[in-house]
Amino acid sequence: MDAEILAQKMKDCGLNFLGFMHGTGIPPYVAGMVTSCGPEEGRRDRTVAFDDPARVQKANADWFELATESGLLTADRRFLLSVSVPCPDAVDDTDVEGVWALVELLDDWDIMGAGCAAGVTGSRYGSPAFVMSALDGSVFVQGTVWQSSIGTAVLPHPHRVQSLRDVACLNVGKPYRTALENEDTLAWLAR
Asked: What is the DSSP string of 55-73?
């Protein structure tokens, strides 16, 4: 995705795009597995029913509360947001990988509404599909659509979760993982 177009889309939903981050030691594909973890692994959720007329506003409030409580946001409200970009040597537009974008939350933001509608944090208005991480990888946050609700799931200390570590180990060196993904995975497993 073109960085200028991405920056404008992010600005429209209240995020300041500060650039792509490589070599973070935090594999985006592992961060995208929060919803596969259970409460016994530390996952906490907030959901809002589809039929709630205020679902987007409530889901935004829930996201912000979880993001703040869990430590997703730095003091200057920065965090990592996974975005899909073409793989190096991509054959077609389906050959993408998750890359971290460093973003700053602005005062006027709308993650669950405008962000989803712009394709930055979801697929359409009120349909979240995002993966976020604290800058140090200490917490992962995922937005998703469930059968009858939308919501946010947060996972603190993800590097301690054995099911995620198992998946990461299984992915190292696979042909569908890029060299950068392998480096980040190995760094993450070394925590």
From this structure: HHHHHHHHHHHHHHHHT-S
The torsion angle over the Cα atoms of residues 176, 156, 133 and 181, rounded to 10 degrees, is: -20
The pTM for the full model equals 0.94
Q: CB neighbours (10 Å) of residue 1? A: 15
Contacts of 36 (CB under 8 A, 6+ apart): 163
Distance CA 148, CA 78 (A): 31
Domain count, the chain: 1
Query: Please, what sign has the CA dihedral across residues 145, 45, 104, 130?
Result: negative
Phi-psi sector, 27: left (phi>0), alpha (psi -120 to 50), beta: beta
pLDDT at residue 144, as a whole number: 97
pLDDT reported for residue 86: 67
Q: Report the DSSP beta bridge partners of residue 128.
A: 122
Domain of residue 175 covers: 3-189
Tokens of 20: 């792509």
Pairing of strands 78-86, 96-105: antiparallel
In whole angstroms, give the CA distance from residue 105 to residue 16.
Answer: 6
Which backbone phi and psi does 91 adopt, to 5 degrees?
-85, -40
pLDDT digits (tens, 9 = 90+) for 126-181: 999 999 999 999 999 999 999 999 999 999 999 999 999 999 999 999 988 888 89
Rounded Cα gap, residues 24 and 171, in angstroms: 17
